[in-house]
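Now read this:
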Amino acid sequence: MASVVLQHLSKSFQGLHGEKIRAVDDLSLCAEDGELLVLVGPSGCGKTTSLRLIAGLEEPDQGTVSIDGKVINQIAPKDRNIAMVFQNHALYPHMSLHENMAFGLKLRKYAKTEIERRVRDAADMLGLANCLTRKPEAISGGQRQRVALGRAIVRNPKVFLMDEPLSNLDAPMRLQMRAEISKLHNHLGTTTIYVIHDQTEAMTLGKRIAVMDQGVLQQVADPMTLYQKPANMFVAGFIGSPPMNFFTGTLIATGSQYVFQETNGKGDMQPNAISVPLQDSRADALKPFIGKKIVLGIRPEHIKEKRQDNSEISIKAVTEAIMPVGSETYVQALSAAHSFMARLPAPTALNTNDTTEFVFDPHFGHFFEPESQNRIN
């Protein structure tokens, strides 16, 4: 096991027209010894490039990669003692599962008895012991992914790097494999950096999650901190499904109370706009923003129908879409200035184009500065 430390790591590529594209921008990050750290972000955010820089498959423009306190920038990929699992299983179709898992060890001249022991141990761990004589075409997608994991496990590396290994599987198999990877990590205790674009998968796998966007690290925290205290609007909108709702408005002081007043795109107030009174505990942080533009963020589960809440403060909105998902229903609604999503208990009596009253819970509001998009409180 080993810690992995990235310090001020940057990598650029040349675009089609000769322009410089910064894939990773001054990335500093640490995966602790034995940790499963998840890198998450939209496609093109730089997470796979970061993984390839650690593996030595790309050379950084600047910055260092260290494992166990030793800088490995000049060490060849084959000598870094890192095992990488790719999105594509990349199994040899003419080889049996046993031969696929043993191939890397044979290239490294391991003794046959040691190869056999490692392959058998990995196969038992992954539930593959009864099909090692089969070829990849004769097993399921989930089993192929296990073989790819087994091929990495037999090497007994210091670090596992996993690049969206479950993206080619269907939803039920992804759920099963997520649980298996989590159990596998708990069993092996090997430092693992796991890249994924699916925030739900990131939340269920990582003890800590690093969120990236456009090559820049946005926030590193445990899943619930990311969800409850996002550092900026990008993290707030990316983490959570359905994503957080955002409303542009103005902060108004009415006596000792502050009120968020929704405005339209031109900054004008409209009848029946969203108006949310705020708690006094937020006064100090929000005081500099009185009379200024501000963004309110609120998650769908903190918006309720008035008949489910006794609050006297509500907003009328027209339901644009009703999306039942079993135990709950997602409702897309349109207020005077903004469209928003509410997550309601199922079943709901609402229908499309109904006008109903919604209540926003002010205890769970998040506030952001519109220019920097950073969190205010």
